[in-house]
Specification:
Elements lengths: L1 E6 L6 H13 L4 E6 H7 L1 H5 L3 E4 L2 E4 L7 H5 L5 E8 L7 H10 E6 L2 H6 L6 E3 L21 E5 L13 H12 L3 H4 L7 H11 L2 E4 L11 H5 L12 H5 L3 E4 L2 H10 L3 E4 L3 H9 L6 E2 L5 H12 L1 H26 L1 H4 L1
Parallel strand pairs: 1-2, 1-3, 3-5, 4-5, 5-6, 6-7, 8-9, 8-10, 10-11, 11-12
Helix pairs in contact: 9-14, 12-15
């Protein structure tokens, strides 16, 4: 059986690439053909329509401005479903995509409650853990003994609190490119990566920079981290990640991978999906706002004071998410996975 998998794979994002690995491993009896997002749907339209099934996902594939791509899905001929997706925002400019996904899908598996609500209450929508919990990372043997080594992940992000790719966000990006001094004059609470780095360095003996995205020609985590560290690797290393005793991170999959490895973490809440994940595993008190810097210091202190208990909580969540996503996938994809 040939299965087209539409997602943003091969762009230097280890979260998306781990999702692809898990889906391929799950469906190893079949030919899984990755399609590179909306552009791939256009350029490989006949290939997609020649497949036996088409899946959209996983990951944060529904963003602001994606409604223009709705006709691509309207024309699909094979059976279609959404697999492990999240909806980054709901707006008029992506309403057409949400509508066609709902109409065409045999089921919609989202990875958080907020995304499910974007499709309304109906029998098509199911909420489950991130697809990487299908085959979670191994728990490192030494994780309980290196709590004074903290991995830090930061990504390029605006200092303002506006919705990503929304009108205010786009305006601020244009304004700061033309007038860089705007940040110094900005009178409201703002995100300061320098302040976050300082807070982490004060709490841990060793801080390791952990880049999580490095697509060529795009601003990367490495670019951001090199502002504060003299040596930063060019790409994600699971070995470096698993060697940490704690993680402070912006990227969602940095938090997810930390959970899978049983490494206590603090998530920097740059997007709603971070808080949704932490809430789903009973970990919301360790998800902190970018705009209230005192929360980071408090969360790190709480993590260090309760390190063993936090680690056990994460390992229990790992096992529960692993079992739950397997049960859901077996039910939704029974003819394929059995």
């Amino acid at each position: 059986m040939r299965i087209a998998l539409i997602g943003f794979y091969g762009h230097g994002n280890p979260g998306d690439d781990r999702i692809l690995y898990c889906i391929r491993r799950l469906l190893q009896k079949h030919e899984v053909i990755p399609i590179n997002g909306f552009a791939g749907m256009r350029s490989q339209r006949e290939l997609v329509n020649s497949c036996d099934h088409v899946f959209f996902g996983g990951g944060g594939v529904v963003q602001r401005g994606t409604g223009v791509h709705a006709p691509l899905f309207q024309d699909l001929r094979p059976p279609f479903a959404c697999l492990g997706i999240s909806v980054e925002a709901v707006h008029d400019d992506n309403a057409d995509l949400l509508k066609v996904l709902h109409e065409k899908s045999s089921f919609i598996l989202t990875r958080d409650e907020r995304s499910a609500m974007a499709f309304g209450l109906n029998n098509k929508v199911v909420v489950g853990p991130d697809l990487t919990f299908l085959f979670p990372y191994r728990v490192p043997d030494h994780a309980a003994s290196c709590s004074d080594i903290c991995g830090l992940n930061l990504l390029p992000w605006g200092f303002w609190p506006f919705e990503y790719k929304g009108g205010a966000d786009k305006f601020m990006r244009r304004l700061t490119r033309k007038f860089p001094r705007v940040e110094a004059m900005y009178p409201f609470p703002k995100w300061s990566p320098a302040r976050a780095v300082e807070a982490v360095r004060k709490e841990f003996k060793t801080v390791l920079p952990l880049p999580f995205y490095w697509e060529s020609g795009q601003p990367s985590d490495g670019d951001q981290l090199r502002r504060f560290f003299s040596r930063v690797e060019d790409e994600y290393s699971s070995e470096a990640f698993s060697g940490c005793g704690a993680i402070v991170a912006m990227r969602l999959h940095a938090a997810i991978f930390a959970c899978q490895m049983g490494i206590p973490f603090v998530s920097l809440d740059y997007q709603p999906k971070n808080r949704e994940f932490c809430r789903s595993i009973g970990y919301e008190s360790y998800c902190v706002s970018l705009f209230r810097p005192a929360e980071l210091k408090q969360a790190i202190g709480k993590l260090k004071a309760n390190y063993a208990g936090v680690r056990q909580q994460l390992l229990a969540a790992r096992d529960e998410c692993h079992a739950r996503i397997h049960n859901l996938i077996n039910r939704l994809l029974a003819p394929m996975v059995n």
